[in-house]
Amino acid sequence: MLLATAVFSPLAYWPILATFLGGVALLLALDLFVIERLTHTAAPTADDQRKRFRISVAWTLICVAAALVTAGLLRWFALHELTAHPELLAGTNYAKLTPETASGAFFLEFVTAYLVEISLSVDNLFVFLVIFRYFALDHDKQHRVLFWGIVGAVLFRAIFIGVGAALVGYAWVLFAMGVFLVITGVRLVASEEKQLEPEKNPFIKLLAGIMPVAPRFDGTRFFTMLDGKRAATPLLVALVVIETTDIAFAVDSVPAVLSISQEPFIAFGSNICAILGLRAMFFVVAEAMQKFHLLKYGLGLVLVWVGLKMTALPYLLDDAHLPAWISLCVIAALIGGTMLLSMIIPQREAESGPDQKEPTHD
Predict the structure, then answer these.
(1) pTM
(2) Alpha carbon 336 to chain centroid distance?
(3) pLDDT at 29 over 90
């Protein structure tokens, strides 16, 4: 199991994990009770929308800064702890490194994993935007679904990383994950966008079998009364679609982050930091989504790259290890390059799809 070969086991260093989760809870609370109040208006004008966009950009940058600070604190803690207890490196993937080199590797791996996760999250947001338009959710409903969707995503990612961490101890599992990522990346580059079909979602069918679903919204409530019985609102249906979509994306993102680092604090911390800024980033992406029409190709190539790191590259390298800074540069070049090309090369009308209308208010 992964914990047996971890430098810092979350079980042994639970106060560190608890502190990190406390910081996550604080940022979520600030997002819900402070940022949302600053951007909320009953009937937003053009000035209000510009203000909301600026605040969303600022909060996104704060979340990115928080992730980099977390990476820096991890490096500082690792250097301090490994200098005092160098025996922690024995039997791990960092056994041949000095405490200073290992702590630097922790920092680079965290930043690389964060960049991968934040890039894949942008792809998630494109899908979320389609879901919101499908259900015609206004700003208030979007915020409520996004907030609870992010809370659910934190829980599901913890479970997925825990399961993946237990499995990657077997070499064949890690290799299989790499093959899966290569195939997924190729399919992402080669395939066309799929149409959203919530009615075929098995979890929606399960929900409809458990309780009735009301035909109309009831403000921002997930439940309402229908013919004297408790019923789910369409907003809960939208939340179920968001959560199940995120689970599907986690199938890609968790193996991707485990290919970069199998250290629990790095894998879990980078994943959660990427999720934290999703709500604010959503409104930024919603404004800029047409500018990055080539981004999916960059994301597909990123998945192919991390898949190769888990499969072919270890056999091509003498020490079976690729320096973290090389991986970071490759991923940054792929994402940054496709974003730059998206702004240089105009999107053809045939690829832009049908006109995208703003969601209507009920």
Answers:
(1) 0.74
(2) 18
(3) no
